UniProtKB/TrEMBL annotation:
Coiled-coil annotated spans: none
Keywords from the named record: Oxidoreductase
Name of one Pfam family that matches: Pyr_redox_3
Source organism of the structure: Rhodococcoides yunnanense
The protein's name in its UniProt record: MSMEG_0569 family flavin-dependent oxidoreductase
Length: 436
């Protein structure tokens, strides 16, 4: 018998996305006995395998890898899992509760139904859901500036999401644009592989890996920094536009100090302004960017010092960071024709793409408008967004907390719908007498 793709497949809840966020809400729904299905366009946790470089490691320690009902149980809790280990960890999680994931099912369109709930057009045919959870993250379309088209055609250009290792490039120098977490770590990866790197520094802050005997993440965790809601942060929801601090978990974890890289031959530049006739132009912002990143790192140490003193904690003292290099004069141009640059890695972010979701739940820039993942559209939720509720929302453990909150909201909505339905049934069974 052939499958009928015209028959509507109904579900109480449809979760869109089979990464750690989608699996976390699936676990909670399973525990509550709420019928649901998880639709994954590719395969479970594929982003960890397909969109990270060969030497990728987490920047958060393994002990923070805690999903609902499942935590890291290896022999290196203070270490940092590598790419394939993270991929395996998330897949084992899905297997641990037999998550109802349908792989290779894409959602082409979702819109509100006139009868309530949502109608979805998928690669497996039409579906209907009373409620949907969008758990596809916030990084969809790689961003590359338009002036990249003006670079010489023999220059290999890729986005950071495509980077796997220096083996992708011909012999020669590599230019990395952007110093967020990915850009800084990719520059380090190329540098350690013996490539001469040209790095365009942005405004990303940095953080020390260790301070006063512990990983800074451990200090910040104990201080409750990852638990402060975005509404209580300076700038409020504007915090969602912030770039994460750069640091690395490679080789047991260490600082990423761009100044130290410069002393080892890495070429640093200020903000990239554009390209014309094969010549790149840079703003003289390098020194200011390095100083700003250092100030953030030192301010975090200030907060840790204050916490140690306030709590009366016995911790070793440590000398503060002293800059090991400063630019004598900032380079504002790079002629690609006379340089040895053979490749460019663009690490300048992503754009969101929710064009398939036909609902009124977005701001003028295409970002979801929500409160802790709950939107103004009844039955529509988001999960796994950066700064969804706290800074910790981008980490395993806090994705679990965000998922628990949304599962409660979904349960409340189901109860409310059932109560309304029961009330309507009683009203139909016992209609009031008409007034004479």
């Amino acid at each position: 018998m052939t499958e009928n793709h015209n028959a509507i497949d109904p579900h109480r809840v449809i979760v869109i996305g089979g990464g750690q966020a989608g699996l976390s809400i699936s676990w909670h729904l399973t525990q509550r006995g709420i019928e649901h299905v998880v639709l994954e366009r590719d395969t479970i946790a594929h982003e960890w395998k397909d969109s990270r470089w060969d030497n990728f490691t987490l920047v958060t320690p393994n002990w923070q890898c805690a999903l609902p009902g499942y935590s890291y149980d290896g022999d290196d809790p203070d270490g940092f899992m590598q790419r394939d280990d993270v991929y395996a960890f998330v897949r084992r999680y899905a297997e641990s509760f037999d998550a109802p994931v349908r792989e290779h099912v894409s959602v082409d369109q979702a819109l509100q139904s006139s009868a309530g709930g949502f109608d979805l057009q998928t690669s497996a045919g039409p579906m209907h859901a009373d409620q949907i959870v969008v758990a596809v993250g916030g990084y969809h379309i790689p961003t590359i500036p338009r002036f990249a088209e003006k670079l010489p055609r023999d220059i290999v250009q890729i986005h950071s999401s495509e980077y796997r290792g220096s083996h992708q490039f011909p012999d020669g120098d590599v230019l990395v644009v952007g110093t967020g977490q990915s850009g800084a770590q990719i520059a380090e990866d190329l540098h350690l592989d013996g490539r001469r790197v040209h790095l365009v520094a942005g405004t990303a802050p940095r953080v020390a890996r260790f301070y006063r005997g512990r990983d800074c993440v451990a200090w910040l965790h104990d201080m409750g920094v990852y638990d402060v809601s975005i509404e209580d942060q300076p700038g409020g929801v504007g915090k969602r536009e912030n770039t994460n601090h750069y640091v690395t978990g490679r080789d047991g974890g260490r600082d990423i100090d761009l100044r130290a890289f410069a002393t080892e031959g890495m070429q640093l530049y200020g903000r990239l302004l554009g390209a014309e006739d094969g010549v790149l132009r840079f703003a003289p912002t390098l020194e200011a960017s390095l100083d700003a990143a250092d100030r953030v790192a030192e301010s975090i140490k200030d907060n840790i010092d204050a916490y140690i003193e306030r709590e009366g904690i016995s911790a070793p003292t440590e000398e503060r960071y002293v800059p090991v290099w400063r630019p004598e004069a900032e380079t504002t141009e790079l002629d690609l024709a006379t340089s040895d640059v053979k490749a460019v890695v663009w690490s300048v972010g992503f754009r969101t793409d929710y064009r398939w979701l036909k609902v009124g739940a977005f701001d003028g820039e295409g970002h979801p408008t929500h409160n802790r993942g709950v939107t103004a559209v009844s039955g529509l939720y988001f999960l796994g967004l950066p700064w969804q509720h706290t800074w910790g929302s981008g980490r395993f453990a806090s994705v679990a907390r965000d998922a628990a909150f949304l599962a409660d909201q979904i349960g409340l909505e189901i109860s409310a719908v059932q109560s309304r339905s029961a009330a309507q049934s009683r009203s139909s069974a016992h209609p009031q007498s008409q007034m004479v």
